[in-house]
Automatic annotation (TrEMBL), chain A:
Keyword ATP-binding: no
Protein name as catalogued: Sugar ABC transporter substrate-binding protein
Pfam family, one: SBP_bac_1
Domain of life: Bacteria
Subcellular location: Periplasm
Keyword Membrane recorded: no
Sequence similarity: Belongs to the bacterial solute-binding protein 1 family.
Protein species of origin: Mesorhizobium escarrei
Residues spanning the signal sequence: 1-26
From TrEMBL, chain B:
Regions crossing the membrane: 20-44, 79-100, 112-135, 165-190, 211-233, 273-292
Family: Belongs to the binding-protein-dependent transport system permease family.
Domain ABC transmembrane type-1: 75-291
Annotated InterPro entries: ABC_transporter_permease, MetI-like, MetI-like_sf
UniProt entry keywords in alphabetical sequence: Cell membrane, Membrane, Transmembrane, Transmembrane helix, Transport
Subcellular localization(s) per the UniProt record: Cell membrane
Gene3D superfamilies: MetI-like
Protein name: Sugar ABC transporter permease
Domain of life: Bacteria
């Protein structure tokens, strides 16, 4: 039997194919890999993407979401194989490695071509002169103080200097009741305690762990910080189990009234309230060295954003980056994340509605964001090396000077 | 039947077994051999995985890990952790198996003990790690009990002190792993003919003599097989150590698995991590060959 195609049918099929093909050509689909979606209220990032798609007809966004660690591994492999998504969520600690792999696009030409106002962004992360990342949302790390424990210990004035901090921690410590002044998590499983709980003391006083782009761990700022931490340890004011304590356990101890003070992410405020609604706490900036009156560096972790060098849709990808960095959208995103904005003009709504966040925003505005691990090669490995030397110091195996010198040696091998 | 047909039939008969085996061979090739060969290949490349055009590195990465004192410390910790675990798994497993096999214990109590003794086997490594972290933390139950009994004068940081951390993780692993021996030996004990013991009773043998001259020789094939398997598995333990100590404090619980993991995902040195993984593979391979030899001897 012969199969005869009707001419009318053929025309319809051809027209449908043409329509589909042109439609497919008109729509650019951007892939956006990040770990933010699981950490935001369900559906909220997708809603922002839908708004972007409505404002930019012809561009669709596919979200590739996963937990932080999975995303990190996925991005490393994607960078190596040239399959990195068009737009990628970044941690400052990764950008050096990714740049070494030539995986990230330089956003300088895109900014220039589109007349982007660079003064509106809080920071532009550059590696070898290339603008590779914008911090979209920043999670700052102030000191949380348990006000009830402080009042019971007779701490009426919250510490502003390191000496005052030591005194307050001593007063709050009652080892017989399992109550300590401070908590320091230095687990090697997640060595971020080096950045958040140790180096934050250096940055708070406007100091640096670097000099001319190289590590300067043997310098006075880092040695003084280690000496100070050792003095806290010698005074017995740090909650025991330092070498295996994780950030999660740090928060648990604070929530359970077992420590008076901790340096922690503002992102944990809601978690702390959920775990112990009765906990009466306040926030202060990280104390500084004596007689320091300058601006205080505020440690932070951020959700950064960048564009893949291998992306075939860099123009569209830049539109998405611009959109997320714009004042209104950025304010909306950081309000959902309880973070501080990447756009300096954006004002998240929680700073007016919540006392703790309002206080933190005040600290944020009077200081500056500081995290020198951003952009360093193998940042996590550097933290691990420093962590081991700090642990040796706290175990009494070496002095602060030796710890700094050994860490410097380990770091230099990586630069 | 013509000669051509006969040779065709012979060929079909010769090929048939391989055709039956081909699905398994394909799966083994894809899931085991290919990753293994790839990792071996990475260990001879510079910037493996991270660069699209990695150069040949020769034995550089092997030299680097053999020159690293942390690698040798990890190897020593692995051997200590594994040997102690296997010895205690075997000893505790044997004691409990003998207890559960004994007629002198009330059957109801025996059934209760059977359930209790097997409990650690039901927990995943993560749960075991969390349980022991809570029990052994400075303010945990263990310190509290030991202080009340007057055995220790002050709180011991079991996992956080370099002096005790390796012993503490080994202890947690011993607790988690003895049921394998217990169950295997119990099955073996139940298979020993009673005639042997009756003959020994007639000869006036004492309990320890029956244990040494009947029970242990009869169980020896099981003891050797399970010990070798346990040695191979324990050598590769990762989650328990990672979650309890992360390899610390100060590398005091760093074992080959955590050392390799850190090279890969903390230092992003996947070439050296591959070299370290190949070393683990070679050790495991040696033990596996020993195991196969023992099985053949049986």
């Amino acid at each position: 039997m012969m199969f005869r195609i009707q001419p009318a049918m053929l025309k319809i099929v051809a027209a449908a194919w043409l329509l589909g093909a042109t439609g497919a050509m008109a729509d650019t689909t951007l892939e956006f890999t990040q770990w933010w979606e699981p950490e935001l209220p369900a559906g909220s990032l997708r809603a922002i993407m839908n708004d972007f798609e409505a404002a930019n007809p012809g561009i669709k966004v596919t979200l590739v979401s996963g937990p932080y660690a999975t995303t990190r591994d996925q991005i490393s492999v994607g960078a190596a194989t040239g399959t990195l998504s068009d737009v990628v969520g970044l941690d400052g600690a990764w950008v050096n490695n990714l740049n070494a792999q030539n995986a990230l696009a330089d956003m300088n030409p895109m900014m220039d071509a589109s007349g982007f106002d660079k003064t509106q962004v809080a920071d532009i992360i550059k590696v070898d002169g290339k603008a590779v990342m914008f911090p979209v949302a920043s999670f700052v790390y102030p000191v949380f103080v348990n006000m009830d424990l402080a009042a019971q210990a007779g701490v009426t004035k919250l510490p502003s200097t390191r000496a005052e901090f030591l005194e307050a921690a001593k007063k709050m410590t009652h080892a017989d009741k399992n109550q300590y002044g401070w908590v320091l998590p230095l687990s090697l499983q997640t060595p971020s305690g080096v950045q958040n709980d140790l180096m934050s003391w250096v940055w708070a006083s406007g100091q640096s762990m670097m000099a001319d782009g190289k590590p300067a761990l043997e310098g006075k700022p880092v040695v003084d910080m280690l000496t100070f931490v050792k003095s806290l340890n010698d005074a017995g004011v740090i909650s025991p189990g330092i070498a295996t304590k994780t950030e999660q356990e740090k928060v648990e101890e604070f929530v359970n009234d077992r420590v008076g003070m901790m340096i922690d992410s503002l992102a944990h405020v809601n978690l702390i309230r959920e775990r112990n609604p009765k906990l009466n706490f306040d926030l202060i900036p990280v104390p500084v060295v004596e007689n320091y009156n300058g601006k205080r560096g505020l440690p932070y972790a951020s959700w950064g954003i960048g564009i893949s060098a291998a992306s075939k849709h860099q123009e569209e990808a830049w539109k998405l980056v611009q959109y997320l960095m714009s004042e209104k959208v950025n304010a909306k995103l950081v309000s959902l994340a309880n973070a501080f904005p990447g756009n300096v003009n954006a004002k998240p709504d929680f700073v007016t509605s919540d006392k703790a966040f309002a206080k933190a925003f005040e600290i944020y505005k009077t200081g500056y964001l500081a995290n020198e691990f951003t952009g360093l090669p193998v940042a996590e490995d550097l933290m691990t090396k420093f962590d081991v030397e700090a642990q040796k110091m706290l175990a009494g195996e070496q002095s602060p000077e030796q710890a700094a010198a050994n860490a410097q040696k380990g770091w230099m091998a990586k630069f | 039947m013509t000669r051509q047909k006969r040779s065709h039939h012979r060929l079909k008969r010769a090929v048939a077994p391989y055709l039956y085996l081909s699905p398994s061979l394909l799966i083994i090739g894809l899931l085991m051999l290919l990753p293994m060969v790839t990792v071996i290949g990475y260990s001879f490349q510079n910037s493996a995985v991270l660069r699209r055009d990695p150069s040949f590195a020769g034995l550089k990465h092997y030299q680097a890990i053999f020159a690293d004192p942390v690698f040798w410390a990890s190897l020593w910790h692995t051997l200590y952790f594994t040997c102690m675990s296997v010895v205690f798994h075997m000893t505790i497993g044997m004691v409990f198996a003998l207890m559960l096999n004994s007629d002198r214990i009330n059957p109801t109590l025996r059934n209760i003990l059977r359930v209790l003794y097997i409990l650690p086997w039901l927990f995943t490594a993560v749960i075991i790690a969390v349980i022991w972290r809570l029990l052994l933390e400075p303010n945990g139950v263990v310190n509290s009990v030991l202080m009340q009994m007057g055995i220790i004068g002050s709180k011991v940081e079991w996992f956080s002190s370099p002096a005790t951390a390796l012993h503490a993780v080994t202890f947690a692993n011993i607790w988690a792993g003895y049921p394998l021996f217990m169950v295997s030996l119990l099955a073996g004990l139940q298979g020993i003919p009673r005639d042997f013991y009756e003959a020994a009773d007639i000869d006036g043998a004492k309990a320890y003599q029956k244990l040494i001259f009947i029970t242990i020789p009869q169980l020896m094939p099981i003891i050797i097989s399970i010990s070798l398997l346990d040695f191979i598995w324990t050598m590769q333990v990762f989650p328990l150590i990672w979650i309890t100590t992360g390899g610390g404090p100060i590398y005091s619980t760093e074992v080959l698995s955590t050392y390799t993991y850190k090279l890969a995902f903390s230092s992003y040195n996947l070439s050296q991590a591959s070299a370290s993984a190949v070393v683990i593979l070679l050790i495991s391979l040696g033990l596996t060959l020993l195991y196969i030899r023992c099985q053949k001897a049986r």
